[in-house]
Design goal:
The two termini are about 30 Å apart. α3 packs across α4 and α5 packs antiparallel against α6. The chain is of the alpha/beta class and about 280 residues long. The strands form 3 sheets. Strands 10-9-8-13-11-12 form a 6-stranded mixed β-sheet, with helices on both faces. The protein has a 4-stranded parallel β-sheet with strand order 2-1-6-7, sandwiched between helices. The radius of gyration is 19 Å and the shape is globular. The chain is built from 11 helices and 13 strands.
Length: about 280
Protein backbone atom coordinates (compact mmCIF):
# COMPACT_ATOMS: atom_id res chain seq x y z
CA UNK A 1 0.00 0.00 0.00
CA UNK A 2 1.36 3.42 -1.00
CA UNK A 3 2.16 5.69 1.91
CA UNK A 4 0.79 9.23 2.05
CA UNK A 5 3.89 11.38 2.54
CA UNK A 6 3.96 15.12 3.30
CA UNK A 7 6.78 17.47 2.33
CA UNK A 8 7.92 20.18 4.74
CA UNK A 9 10.58 22.87 4.60
CA UNK A 10 11.28 26.34 5.98
CA UNK A 11 11.60 29.72 4.28
CA UNK A 12 15.37 29.38 3.92
CA UNK A 13 14.48 27.51 0.72
CA UNK A 14 12.52 30.49 -0.68
CA UNK A 15 10.17 28.32 -2.73
CA UNK A 16 8.06 29.91 -5.45
CA UNK A 17 4.27 29.56 -5.15
CA UNK A 18 4.10 27.37 -8.26
CA UNK A 19 6.64 24.95 -6.73
CA UNK A 20 4.77 24.85 -3.42
CA UNK A 21 1.52 24.05 -5.21
CA UNK A 22 3.07 21.47 -7.55
CA UNK A 23 4.59 19.41 -4.75
CA UNK A 24 2.14 20.41 -1.99
CA UNK A 25 4.96 21.58 0.29
CA UNK A 26 4.16 22.78 3.81
CA UNK A 27 6.22 25.82 4.80
CA UNK A 28 7.43 26.74 8.28
CA UNK A 29 8.42 30.43 8.26
CA UNK A 30 11.61 31.73 9.83
CA UNK A 31 11.19 35.05 11.61
CA UNK A 32 12.96 38.39 11.86
CA UNK A 33 12.74 40.11 15.24
CA UNK A 34 12.63 43.91 14.93
CA UNK A 35 12.21 46.34 17.82
CA UNK A 36 8.50 46.63 17.05
CA UNK A 37 7.76 42.93 16.86
CA UNK A 38 8.35 39.52 15.34
CA UNK A 39 7.69 39.19 11.62
CA UNK A 40 7.33 35.79 9.97
CA UNK A 41 8.99 35.62 6.58
CA UNK A 42 6.52 35.41 3.65
CA UNK A 43 3.61 35.58 6.12
CA UNK A 44 3.86 38.92 7.93
CA UNK A 45 6.21 40.64 5.48
CA UNK A 46 7.39 40.51 1.89
CA UNK A 47 11.03 40.76 0.85
CA UNK A 48 10.48 44.41 -0.10
CA UNK A 49 8.89 45.22 3.27
CA UNK A 50 11.75 43.52 5.10
CA UNK A 51 14.47 45.59 3.39
CA UNK A 52 12.45 48.77 3.86
CA UNK A 53 12.38 48.07 7.61
CA UNK A 54 16.03 47.00 7.71
CA UNK A 55 17.26 50.27 6.15
CA UNK A 56 15.64 52.42 8.83
CA UNK A 57 15.97 50.08 11.84
CA UNK A 58 17.66 51.84 14.77
CA UNK A 59 18.19 48.52 16.54
CA UNK A 60 19.63 45.73 14.41
CA UNK A 61 17.11 42.88 14.10
CA UNK A 62 17.67 39.28 15.09
CA UNK A 63 16.48 36.09 13.47
CA UNK A 64 14.37 33.33 14.96
CA UNK A 65 13.50 29.75 14.05
CA UNK A 66 9.88 28.64 13.60
CA UNK A 67 8.04 28.26 16.90
CA UNK A 68 7.92 24.64 18.05
CA UNK A 69 4.20 25.16 18.69
CA UNK A 70 3.71 25.82 14.98
CA UNK A 71 5.53 22.58 14.18
CA UNK A 72 3.37 20.64 16.62
CA UNK A 73 0.22 22.13 15.09
CA UNK A 74 1.36 21.26 11.58
CA UNK A 75 2.23 17.67 12.48
CA UNK A 76 -1.12 17.19 14.23
CA UNK A 77 -2.91 18.53 11.15
CA UNK A 78 -1.01 16.17 8.88
CA UNK A 79 -1.96 13.24 11.12
CA UNK A 80 -5.62 14.27 10.94
CA UNK A 81 -5.36 14.49 7.15
CA UNK A 82 -4.22 10.89 6.97
CA UNK A 83 -0.53 11.32 6.26
CA UNK A 84 1.62 8.37 7.27
CA UNK A 85 4.79 10.43 7.63
CA UNK A 86 6.61 13.55 6.43
CA UNK A 87 9.98 14.42 4.95
CA UNK A 88 11.24 17.75 6.31
CA UNK A 89 14.19 19.46 4.62
CA UNK A 90 15.55 22.21 6.87
CA UNK A 91 18.19 24.92 6.78
CA UNK A 92 21.63 24.01 8.15
CA UNK A 93 21.54 23.15 11.86
CA UNK A 94 24.64 25.32 12.30
CA UNK A 95 22.53 28.35 11.34
CA UNK A 96 19.25 27.56 13.06
CA UNK A 97 17.68 25.26 15.62
CA UNK A 98 14.85 24.41 13.18
CA UNK A 99 16.18 20.91 12.46
CA UNK A 100 16.41 20.00 16.16
CA UNK A 101 12.99 21.48 16.91
CA UNK A 102 11.49 19.48 14.07
CA UNK A 103 12.65 16.25 15.68
CA UNK A 104 11.42 17.31 19.11
CA UNK A 105 7.98 18.32 17.80
CA UNK A 106 7.60 15.01 15.98
CA UNK A 107 8.27 13.11 19.22
CA UNK A 108 5.75 15.27 21.09
CA UNK A 109 3.02 14.43 18.58
CA UNK A 110 4.15 10.85 17.91
CA UNK A 111 4.22 11.51 14.17
CA UNK A 112 6.94 10.06 11.96
CA UNK A 113 8.99 12.91 10.47
CA UNK A 114 12.18 12.27 8.54
CA UNK A 115 13.96 15.50 9.44
CA UNK A 116 16.89 16.27 7.15
CA UNK A 117 19.66 18.74 7.94
CA UNK A 118 20.38 20.21 4.49
CA UNK A 119 23.68 21.61 5.84
CA UNK A 120 23.02 24.63 3.64
CA UNK A 121 20.15 26.87 2.52
CA UNK A 122 18.54 28.29 -0.61
CA UNK A 123 18.75 26.55 -4.00
CA UNK A 124 20.05 23.11 -2.89
CA UNK A 125 17.03 22.73 -0.59
CA UNK A 126 14.79 23.23 -3.61
CA UNK A 127 16.61 20.49 -5.52
CA UNK A 128 16.39 18.11 -2.56
CA UNK A 129 12.61 18.40 -2.53
CA UNK A 130 12.32 18.24 -6.31
CA UNK A 131 14.54 15.15 -6.67
CA UNK A 132 12.90 13.53 -3.64
CA UNK A 133 9.49 13.85 -5.27
CA UNK A 134 10.80 12.37 -8.53
CA UNK A 135 12.16 9.39 -6.64
CA UNK A 136 8.88 8.81 -4.82
CA UNK A 137 6.94 9.00 -8.08
CA UNK A 138 9.30 6.48 -9.67
CA UNK A 139 8.52 3.94 -6.94
CA UNK A 140 11.29 4.37 -4.37
CA UNK A 141 10.27 3.97 -0.74
CA UNK A 142 10.60 6.79 1.77
CA UNK A 143 13.80 5.47 3.37
CA UNK A 144 15.52 5.31 -0.03
CA UNK A 145 14.41 8.86 -0.78
CA UNK A 146 15.74 10.17 2.53
CA UNK A 147 19.07 8.44 1.94
CA UNK A 148 19.30 9.97 -1.54
CA UNK A 149 18.55 13.46 -0.22
CA UNK A 150 21.23 13.14 2.46
CA UNK A 151 23.73 12.30 -0.29
CA UNK A 152 22.76 15.52 -2.08
CA UNK A 153 23.74 17.53 1.01
CA UNK A 154 27.35 16.42 0.48
CA UNK A 155 27.41 17.73 -3.10
CA UNK A 156 25.65 21.05 -2.52
CA UNK A 157 27.49 24.35 -2.69
CA UNK A 158 26.64 27.94 -1.82
CA UNK A 159 29.08 30.83 -1.87
CA UNK A 160 28.13 34.46 -1.43
CA UNK A 161 29.73 37.89 -1.33
CA UNK A 162 28.33 40.28 1.30
CA UNK A 163 27.89 43.79 -0.13
CA UNK A 164 29.95 45.04 2.83
CA UNK A 165 30.71 43.98 6.38
CA UNK A 166 28.37 46.44 8.10
CA UNK A 167 25.58 43.93 8.68
CA UNK A 168 28.01 41.21 9.76
CA UNK A 169 29.42 43.68 12.28
CA UNK A 170 25.95 44.57 13.57
CA UNK A 171 25.20 40.86 13.88
CA UNK A 172 28.39 40.36 15.90
CA UNK A 173 30.12 38.27 13.21
CA UNK A 174 33.05 40.66 12.63
CA UNK A 175 34.62 43.48 14.65
CA UNK A 176 33.97 47.13 13.96
CA UNK A 177 37.61 47.65 13.05
CA UNK A 178 37.54 44.89 10.44
CA UNK A 179 34.33 46.24 8.96
CA UNK A 180 35.73 49.78 8.79
CA UNK A 181 39.01 48.74 7.16
CA UNK A 182 37.29 46.39 4.70
CA UNK A 183 34.86 49.09 3.60
CA UNK A 184 37.63 51.70 3.39
CA UNK A 185 39.84 49.50 1.20
CA UNK A 186 36.92 47.97 -0.73
CA UNK A 187 37.87 44.50 0.46
CA UNK A 188 35.31 41.85 -0.38
CA UNK A 189 34.99 38.55 1.43
CA UNK A 190 33.65 35.28 0.09
CA UNK A 191 31.66 33.11 2.47
CA UNK A 192 31.00 29.47 1.63
CA UNK A 193 29.66 26.42 3.46
CA UNK A 194 31.86 23.71 4.92
CA UNK A 195 29.86 20.79 6.33
CA UNK A 196 27.00 23.08 7.26
CA UNK A 197 29.10 25.92 8.66
CA UNK A 198 29.50 29.26 6.85
CA UNK A 199 33.21 30.10 6.64
CA UNK A 200 35.16 32.99 5.18
CA UNK A 201 37.28 31.49 2.38
CA UNK A 202 38.65 34.48 0.50
CA UNK A 203 39.46 38.19 0.86
CA UNK A 204 40.03 40.20 -2.31
CA UNK A 205 40.01 43.77 -3.48
CA UNK A 206 36.88 44.68 -5.46
CA UNK A 207 33.67 42.81 -6.18
CA UNK A 208 34.84 41.72 -9.64
CA UNK A 209 37.65 39.63 -8.16
CA UNK A 210 35.32 38.13 -5.57
CA UNK A 211 32.91 37.05 -8.33
CA UNK A 212 35.82 35.60 -10.28
CA UNK A 213 36.79 33.53 -7.22
CA UNK A 214 33.24 32.18 -6.78
CA UNK A 215 32.99 31.39 -10.49
CA UNK A 216 36.30 29.51 -10.20
CA UNK A 217 34.76 27.38 -7.44
CA UNK A 218 31.91 26.56 -9.81
CA UNK A 219 34.36 25.64 -12.58
CA UNK A 220 36.22 23.34 -10.22
CA UNK A 221 33.03 21.47 -9.34
CA UNK A 222 32.01 21.24 -13.00
CA UNK A 223 35.23 19.33 -13.62
CA UNK A 224 34.44 16.91 -10.78
CA UNK A 225 30.96 16.02 -11.95
CA UNK A 226 27.78 17.11 -13.70
CA UNK A 227 26.53 20.60 -12.78
CA UNK A 228 23.63 21.28 -15.16
CA UNK A 229 22.21 24.26 -13.30
CA UNK A 230 23.38 27.13 -11.11
CA UNK A 231 21.46 29.76 -9.18
CA UNK A 232 22.60 33.35 -8.82
CA UNK A 233 21.40 34.13 -5.31
CA UNK A 234 20.93 37.63 -3.95
CA UNK A 235 19.67 39.84 -1.15
CA UNK A 236 17.43 42.34 -2.94
CA UNK A 237 20.01 42.81 -5.68
CA UNK A 238 18.30 41.45 -8.77
CA UNK A 239 20.07 43.91 -11.07
CA UNK A 240 23.58 42.62 -10.26
CA UNK A 241 22.30 39.04 -10.13
CA UNK A 242 20.87 39.31 -13.65
CA UNK A 243 24.16 40.79 -14.85
CA UNK A 244 26.08 37.87 -13.33
CA UNK A 245 23.61 35.49 -14.95
CA UNK A 246 24.37 36.99 -18.37
CA UNK A 247 28.10 36.60 -17.77
CA UNK A 248 27.70 32.95 -16.81
CA UNK A 249 25.52 32.18 -19.83
CA UNK A 250 28.17 33.64 -22.11
CA UNK A 251 30.96 31.69 -20.43
CA UNK A 252 28.96 28.44 -20.11
CA UNK A 253 26.38 28.32 -22.96
CA UNK A 254 25.01 24.90 -21.91
CA UNK A 255 24.54 25.86 -18.27
CA UNK A 256 21.03 26.66 -17.04
CA UNK A 257 21.18 29.78 -14.86
CA UNK A 258 18.48 30.89 -12.42
CA UNK A 259 18.17 34.05 -10.33
CA UNK A 260 16.80 33.42 -6.84
CA UNK A 261 16.32 35.53 -3.70
CA UNK A 262 17.98 34.64 -0.42
CA UNK A 263 15.96 34.45 2.78
CA UNK A 264 15.42 37.67 4.71
CA UNK A 265 17.23 35.93 7.57
CA UNK A 266 20.35 35.87 5.40
CA UNK A 267 19.78 39.55 4.63
CA UNK A 268 19.85 40.33 8.37
CA UNK A 269 23.43 39.10 8.59
CA UNK A 270 24.88 39.47 5.07
CA UNK A 271 23.13 42.71 4.16
CA UNK A 272 21.21 44.10 1.23
CA UNK A 273 23.15 43.87 -2.02
CA UNK A 274 24.71 40.48 -1.31
CA UNK A 275 25.12 38.15 -4.30
CA UNK A 276 26.47 34.65 -4.78
CA UNK A 277 26.18 31.32 -6.56
CA UNK A 278 24.69 28.00 -5.51
CA UNK A 279 24.63 24.64 -7.25
CA UNK A 280 24.43 20.86 -6.82
CA UNK A 281 26.95 18.46 -8.35
CA UNK A 282 25.69 15.09 -9.58
Amino acid sequence: MTKKIAWITDTAAQLEKSFIQKYNVHILPLSVVFADGVFRETVDMTQEEFYDKLRVAKVHPKTSQPAIGDMVSLYKKLQEQGYDCAIAVHVSSDLSGTFDSSQTAAQMVDFKVYSIDSKIGSYPMIKMIEIGNELLESGHDVEEVVTAIKKITKNSELSFIPANLNQLHKSGRVSGTKAFISNLLNIKVVITFDDGKPVMTEKVRANKRAKKHVTALLCSDMKKGNVPEVAVINCNNTKDAESWKDELMQEFPKLKVLVLPLSACVGVHAGEGTTGLSWVRY
